[in-house]
Design goal:
170 residues; alpha+beta; 6-stranded antiparallel beta sheet; 36% helix
C-alpha cells in the first residue's frame, strides 16, 4: 500500500538532453517506497510505455511496480489477458534511477511515447506530471491539456457521487 498518494498536476521543462525534474512531492513518495540500500543507492521510478491507445507513460514507485506485477502474476498463466498485461505493462517498461538532483533522463522509448521525436527537444519541451493515487502519468504538456479539454465535458455528475457509487458497488 502506498505510504502517500501521488496528487496534483505539475509542469516541468524537459531540456535538450531529455532531462526532466520529478516534482519534489512525487520524489518523496518514490524515495519512501524504494528505500536506499547499498545495492540501490538511489530511488527508482518504473515507467510503463506500453499500450497502443495510451498517450502517456505510467510511472510507479518500486512498491507500486511490485504490486502491479503481483496482480499480473495472479492472472491465469497463458491467458490472452495475462499475455497482454505482461507485454504492455512489464515488457514495455523501464526502470530509471532518480539522480541526486531529482532529475531523470527520459529514455528513447519513453520520449517516443510522449511524442518527443527526433530533434523535438532541441528547443526544450514541457512535461505534465499528473498524480493518480498509486502512480503518476507523464505526458507531453500539449497532449495532457488536450486530453483534459476532451474529458472536461460537464455531464452534470459530481465526481464525489461517482466515488460513492463505486464504494456501494453500484
Amino acid at each position: 500500500m502506498a505510504s502517500e498518494a501521488f496528487r496534483g498536476e505539475f509542469y516541468q521543462k524537459v531540456d535538450s538532453k531529455a532531462r526532466v525534474s520529478i516534482p519534489a512531492a512525487f520524489r518523496r513518495i518514490l524515495e519512501a517506497e524504494d528505500p536506499v540500500t547499498e545495492q540501490n543507492p538511489r530511488a527508482r521510478v518504473y515507467m510503463v510505455y506500453g499500450g497502443k491507445a495510451r498517450r502517456f507513460v505510467e510511472c510507479y514507485s518500486r512498491a507500486g511496480a511490485d504490486a502491479l506485477a503481483a496482480k499480473i502474476e495472479a492472472m491465469e498463466l497463458g491467458s490472452p489477458e495475462r499475455d497482454r498485461a505482461e507485454r504492455d505493462l512489464i515488457s514495455r517498461s523501464v526502470m530509471i534511477e532518480v539522480e541526486p538532483d531529482g532529475r531523470i533522463v527520459l529514455p528513447p522509448k519513453v520520449r517516443e511515447k510522449m511524442g518527443f521525436l527526433g530533434d523535438d527537444l532541441t528547443g526544450g519541451g514541457e512535461a505534465a506530471f499528473a498524480g493518480f493515487t498509486n502512480r503518476f502519468k507523464l505526458y507531453r504538456r500539449e497532449v495532457y491539456e488536450a486530453e483534459l479539454a476532451e474529458d472536461d465535458d460537464d455531464d452534470g455528475v459530481d465526481p464525489l457521487a461517482l466515488v460513492g457509487r463505486a464504494t456501494r458497488g453500484g
